[in-house]
Design a protein that fits this description.
By secondary structure, the protein is an alpha/beta fold. It has a domain of about 300 residues: 3-Layer(bba) Sandwich (FAD/NAD(P)-binding domain), CATH 3.50.50. Helix content is about 25%, strand content about 20%. The protein is built from twelve helices and 18 strands. The strands form four sheets. Strands 1, 2, 7, 8, 9, 10 and 18 form a seven-stranded mixed beta sheet that branches. It has a six-stranded antiparallel beta sheet with strand order 6-12-13-14-11-17, with helices on one face. It has a three-stranded mixed beta sheet with strand order 3-16-15. α1 packs parallel to α7 and α1 runs parallel beside α12. The two termini are about 25 Å apart. About 55% of the residues are buried.
């Protein structure tokens, strides 16, 4: 069954799609979005039940699509990577499960070739995105504190998330060492904001926020986009993008909720499927004009995958820290080691993000996995010495692009509709390995300075493939990039990509804020170029 053409068809309904659809809708074009997941029901989030940690760590709200067992997921072959792929398929995408830690990129992140002689410069700069960061802060409801010396001046609409006892304790370690720290920018309401209630510090952020304080796009941008006339169709899994005889995109083939194959025609197609899902769809969209996959004449679709190698360093303290209270990953950050220092044995740098302590079940599992708790005699005493006494930080290391780190199609694995699944091949670079070692050493120093009696380091953190970037990079040279400086495919003029796959470099901070700022920037560029949009 083939539907009549729409003006703009968006594939995916996560962070970037929601922001893009809301912005572009002011043109009053006919905009339709297809999402393979469904609307989430906050009343069914794990945080409202006593088994929330089990569901978050081991069940249907886990990070990995390979272990969740949800019908809307697709498998990812990540056996050739030390870092597992993590994502969520739903209206709102991975913002359902993210921590809402919400930094911006630094100005230097757009000029790494000029400054440090590595990777490539972006075809835009911080100033280009700054107004869109500001719009996004308002729409998502960002909390923070003005004046951070690590950034140019910026305004956030809400007061910062409270540090709590754990934040104050770890901040004391930074103070003793004389290192930068600042309250995090967080996409979490700290007071009532535009119909959303203030955070109640339940600490269940990573399994969905039933309270609505965490800014997932199903409760921020999407309601506003729908009011502007956008149509959103959940439970529609796109198999391929089709092209006409002129090599222009003319729609998609998808499966509806009943598994029925359908076709939706469109004048413009926009991809927002993340750094794994977007190259998967392009590589699955082979045709006579594009035998190696759609928009892949450069051969770069799927290449330059960046994952942000994480180190996690946890300190164990004698006193209770109340670490189970408050947003899990939103407290303070440090950008002390963010920029390149020629005295170090690696280029670029990393940020340190304070994470609060574990809940009861999480503390037990972590204690068992690290040998701090054992079954049998002394079990309860060991648990008592650990629960609410562990807190630490993650180091988010800049991942430089490498063409051999890539997404391809698995020759055997498929999803439930028979669509070939993605395979990721990823090797930790020598630069990343040295950066991780430095980060572990510095984080350990902070924890010891804050009073930790013991520390545990995990690097690279295996489940931490949350940030999926670089597999359809932007640039001005069609031989070295997949899309131009406003997300338009070099090969297919009516095809746009707006998710993290268009990143040129990864920076050393969480990417969601920048993904959304880019989507808003691209929407504005399209609005300014409507006259030749359908050429």
């Amino acid at each position: 069954m083939t539907a009549e053409p729409v003006d703009v068809l968006i594939v995916g309904a996560g962070a970037s799609a929601a922001a893009f659809a809301w912005s572009l809708a002011e043109t009053r074009m006919n905009i339709v979005c297809l999402e393979q997941g469904d609307w989430m029901d906050p009343s069914k989030y794990p945080g409202l039940g006593g088994d929330w940690e089990a569901r978050q760590l081991l069940g249907d709200f886990g990070f990995s699509p390979n272990t969740r067992g949800r019908s809307e997921d697709y498998p990812v072959n990540d056996s050739a990577s030390p870092i597992a792929a993590s994502m969520f398929n739903a209206v709102g995408g991975s913002t359902i499960l993210y921590a809402a830690h919400f930094p911006r990129f630094h100005p230097s992140d757009f000029r790494v070739r000029t400054l440090d002689g590595v990777a490539d410069d972006w075809p835009l700069d911080y100033a280009s995105l700054e107004p869109y960061y500001d719009v996004n802060a308002r729409m998502m409801g960002v909390a923070g504190l003005a004046g951070d010396p690590a950034y140019p001046p910026k305004v956030v609409p809400l007061p910062a998330v409270a540090l709590g006892k754990v934040g104050r304790t770890l901040a004391s370690g930074f103070n003793r060492l004389g290192w930068h720290w600042w309250p995090s920018d967080s996409a979490i309401t700290t007071q009532d904001y535009e119909g959303r209630a203030a955070c109640i510090n339940a600490g269940t952020c990573l399994s969905g926020c039933a309270h609505g304080a965490k800014a997932s796009t199903d409760i921020t941008y999407w309601p506003a986009a729908l009011r502007r006339g956008v149509t959103l169709r959940p439970r529609c899994r796109v198999r391929e993008i089709t092209v006409n005889e002129s090599g222009m995109a003319d729609g998609v083939v998808y499966y509806d909720a009943d598994g029925v194959e359908r076709t939706q025609k469109a004048h413009v197609v926009v991809l927002a499927c993340n750094g794994i899902g977007t190259p998967r769809l392009l590589l699955n969209s082979r045709s006579r004009q594009f035998p190696d996959g759609l928009a892949n004449r450069s051969g770069l679709v799927g290449r330059n995958l960046m994952l942000h190698p994480y180190a996690m360093v946890t300190g164990i303290f004698d006193e209770r820290l109340e670490g189970y209270k408050g947003p899990t990953g939103c407290c303070i950050w440090s950008h002390e080691f963010y920029e390149t220092d020629r005295a170090r044995d690696f280029v670029r740098g990393y940020s340190l993000e304070i994470v609060r302590g574990y809940g009861p079940a999480g503390a037990a599992l972590w204690g068992l996995s690290t040998g701090r708790i054992s079954p049998g005699a002394g079990h309860h005493e060991a648990y008592g010495a650990l629960f609410d006494r562990a807190a630490g930080m993650v180091a988010i290391c800049e991942d430089l692009p490498d063409a051999d780190n890539r997404v391809t199609l698995d020759p055997q694995m498929t999803d439930s509709n028979g669509i070939p699944a993605p395979k990721i091949t990823y090797r930790l670079s020598d630069n990343s390995a040295r950066m991780l070692a430095h980060a572990v050493a510095r984080a350990t120093e902070v924890l010891q300075a804050a009073g930790a009696r013991d520390t545990v380091a995990e690097a690279p953190l295996q489940p931490a493939g949350w940030h999926l970037m670089g597999t359809a990079r932007m640039g001005t040279d069609p031989a070295r990039s997949v899309v131009n400086e406003w997300g338009r495919s070099h090969d297919v003029r009516n095809l746009f990509i707006i998710d993290g796959s268009i990143f040129v470099t990864s920076a050393g901070v969480n990417p969601t804020n920048t993904i959304q700022a880019l989507a808003l920037y691209i929407a504005d560029a399209i609005k300014k170029n409507l006259a030749n949009l359908f050429d």
